[in-house]
Specification:
The protein is α/β, with parallel strands linked by helices. Helices cover 22% and strands 24% of the residues. The chain contains 5 helices and 7 strands; from the N terminus they run αβααβαβαββββ. The chain has helices spanning 14-20, 35-40, 43-52, 84-93, 115-120; strands at 27-30, 56-62, 98-103, 131-133, 136-140, 144-152, 164-171. The strands form 2 sheets. A 4-stranded antiparallel sheet has the order 4-5-6-7. The chain is globular and about 50 Å long.
Length: 176
């Protein structure tokens, strides 16, 4: 992290790490990345700094059931939460060589194509860095606008913790 928060038992000064690895090819990986956690612990700030420094990254979101009482079994499939907030969170911090993985687990059967991926492919390149107004983040792309609103401190339905984050990705009408 670029920020050593008080009472943090272990801290790696990421500025020193990036300096030591300068001239090498490597990437970082965010396991269990979720929009509400990024907003709650300011991970967005860290990811923005990494992206601005040219670091490549992969981010993996484990989708949760929309209804926390639903249990997936061989004979029962649960409806998953809306992936839009998590994808919007990635779009806020995304730089060249940043990749998104959304699944319910590690196996091939746990990964499924989302029509939202096709929508994101229309966005083009970012036109600015992410902008913040309290707990609302926005970012403008060539062909879309992205927003992540985490101002509601109450967890969303099916969400275990954190603020309820609502994500929107609007493709500009002249690009549809």
């Amino acid at each position: 992290s670029f920020n050593n928060t008080p009472f943090q038992p272990i801290w790696l000064n990421e500025s020193r790490l990036l300096a030591a690895l300068k001239g090498t090819t490597w990437s970082t990986y965010y396991e269990f990345m979720r929009a509400e956690l990024m907003a709650e612990n300011n991970q967005i700030i860290n990811m923005l700094t990494e992206g601005n420094d040219g670091l490549a990254a992969g981010v993996h979101v484990y989708y949760q059931n929309a209804n926390s009482s639903c249990k997936t079994t061989v004979n029962n499939t649960c409806t998953l939460e809306d992936p839009t907030p998590h994808m919007a969170a990635l779009m806020l911090v995304r730089q060249e060589h940043w990749y998104y993985f959304g699944s319910t687990g590690w196996l091939d059967k746990d990964f499924h194509w989302s029509p939202l991926y096709d929508k994101l492919s229309q966005c083009g390149k970012p036109q600015e860095t992410a902008q913040r107004n309290a707990m609302i983040w926005t970012r403008e792309y060539d062909n879309c606008n992205v927003m992540l609103n985490c101002s509601d401190a109450t967890p969303c339905k099916g969400q275990k913790s954190g603020p309820c984050c609502i994500g929107t990705i609007n493709v500009k009408s002249d690009h549809i």
